[in-house]
Write a structure and sequence with these properties.
By secondary structure, this protein is α+β, with helices and mostly antiparallel strands. It is 36% helix and 23% strand. It contains 14 helices and 21 strands. Strands 10, 11, 12, 13, 14 and 15 form a six-stranded antiparallel β-sheet that branches. A six-stranded mixed β-sheet has the order 16-18-17-19-20-21. The protein has a four-stranded antiparallel β-sheet with strand order 3-9-4-6, covered by helices on one side. α3 packs antiparallel against α4 (125-135) and α11 (354-365) crosses α12.
């Protein structure tokens, strides 16, 4: 049994994200796993020390629009009066109003103003102003937001288009192919992992030559596999090539369109998209990264990112200080096995320095829920002596008040253990992970 509701959700989201990634890679097997973290509230990449850039829906649509990708006509508004004016300017048969927050499940969300739903359809522009007045400045709570929700500061007012048919299309970097890959399915508008599990034959994959780009025959073949016929096939192929142009232009690691839809009027439109960006390209994508809205980010996560640390908050009382994704999950699980509850975990990554260890302890001890800290380090590229020096410095300068259990193994571990034992500090050493978890849980129960 998992220890907390948030930890359970954390594990479930991990599994869902792995399966989805396997499906988009066209592996045709729902059991294939590829490690991506879909964090409790917002999607994150924790394999990199920096969090992924997250854009609002309207920002992604603007990037697509700038590359000639067909999207719905839309405007953005910060006030109810602006939303009303935007609705009038659209002059559309039907209008969709969407609250802009970095969380899914908006349609089924609830505002603290009493309004239900963060997505509304209407044919009356006047209603847009009334709805926006109940959205802007109010908190919207969904399954992916914190308990108190997220304050809505912006709404998107867009033309509502009917969809005759929905397909799925994505371009992503695939390590097994040493470059970008197109993945598509005629079964769009649903979770791609469900398609992979039930009808893997409906997932189509095209490897893109990184030097040649998407060729006409590839684009046409993918459009045909997506079920587009006649003139729509050529139109869909053109959209596919434009999406690849976007993929290159913004240094994306993934552009996922779900659905890539067909309208009754014979248009191929990208109705919704998720774009993931390569953080290492920030130096040449300053305009894109300047769009990053930090207001919804967890303050502790942001502080951790300043020191190239990855922090994940949970709701137990034992803080986990680790280096590496798998080790973090194993540490949380074994604490659970011995009846404990992880309060969080903080991933050091590889090229760690003493100052990072010190800052990590500051973050962990600032959490009022933390009643003990478990350090679990396996020194491969990490020097255990650096960790030990950082720990002793933090314990002295921060006057650590909670029990501290340390398990170190790997590079320079003998020197590290000597540093800890000669420090004179109340640090409990552990021989292995099982021993460390037992001692951490026991320290809480004293």
């Amino acid at each position: 049994m998992l220890v907390t509701s948030s930890y359970s959700q954390f594990r479930n989201n991990m599994a869902a994200s792995m399966t989805a990634r396997a499906a988009t890679r066209g592996l045709g097997a729902a059991t294939s796993k590829h490690l991506l973290l879909n964090k409790l509230k917002l999607q994150r990449n924790w394999l990199s020390p920096k969090r992924w850039l997250n854009l609002q829906e309207y920002q992604s649509k603007k990037l697509m629009q700038d590359c000639g990708v067909a999207v719905q006509r839309f405007f953005v508004a910060d006030t109810a009066s602006e939303a009303l004016e935007a609705a009038k300017r659209l002059d559309a048969k039907e209008i969709v109003l969407k609250a802009q927050i970095l969380a899914g499940g908006r349609g089924k969300g609830v505002f603290d103003s009493g309004l239900k739903g963060g997505v509304h359809l209407t044919k009356d522009p006047a209603v847009v102003g009334e709805l926006a007045n109940k959205m802007l400045g109010f908190n919207l709570t969904t399954k992916q937001t914190p308990k108190d929700g997220v304050k809505v500061k912006t709404v998107m007012v867009a033309e509502a288009l009917d969809i005759t048919r929905e397909t799925y299309f994505a371009i992503l970097m695939d390590r097994s192919c040493n470059g970008p890959v197109m993945v598509g399915s005629p079964q769009g508008g649903m979770d791609i992992e469900e398609v992979a599990a039930s009808t893997p034959e409906l997932i189509f994959k095209e490897v893109i030559d990184i030097f040649e780009g998407v060729q006409d025959d590839q684009a046409i073949r993918m459009a045909a596999n997506l079920g587009f016929k006649g003139p729509l096939q050529r139109q869909a192929a053109d959209q596919i090539k434009r999406l690849y142009d976007l993929f290159l232009k913004v240094d994306a690691t993934q552009v996922e369109v779900n659905p890539l839809g067909e309208t009754p009027e014979g248009q191929v439109v990208c109705f919704d998209a998720k774009i993931n960006f390569d953080d290492n390209a920030e130096f040449r994508q300053k305009a894109v990264f300047a769009m990053d809205d930090m207001t919804e980010s967890d303050p502790t996560e942001m502080e951790a990112a300043k020191w190239d640390l990855k922090y994940i908050g949970l709701d137990g009382n034992i803080a986990c200080f680790v280096n590496g994704a798998g080790l973090a999950m194993a540490t949380c699980d074994i604490i659970d096995l011995h009846g404990g509850k992880p309060a969080n975990f903080l991933d050091l990554g590889g090229g760690v320095k003493e100052r990072q260890v010190y800052e990590a302890f500051k973050l962990l001890t600032a959490d009022p829920k933390v009643e003990a800290i478990l350090v679990n380090i396996f020194g491969g590229i990490v020097n255990c002596a650096i960790i030990a020096n950082g720990i002793t410095k933090a314990c002295r300068e921060l006057e650590l008040k909670v029990p501290l259990v340390v398990r170190l193994e790997g590079t320079n571990v003998t020197e590290a253990k000597r540093i800890l034992s000669e420090s004179g500090l109340p640090i409990t050493a552990a021989d292995n992970l099982d021993d460390a978890a037992k001692k951490a849980v026991a320290a809480i129960k004293k």
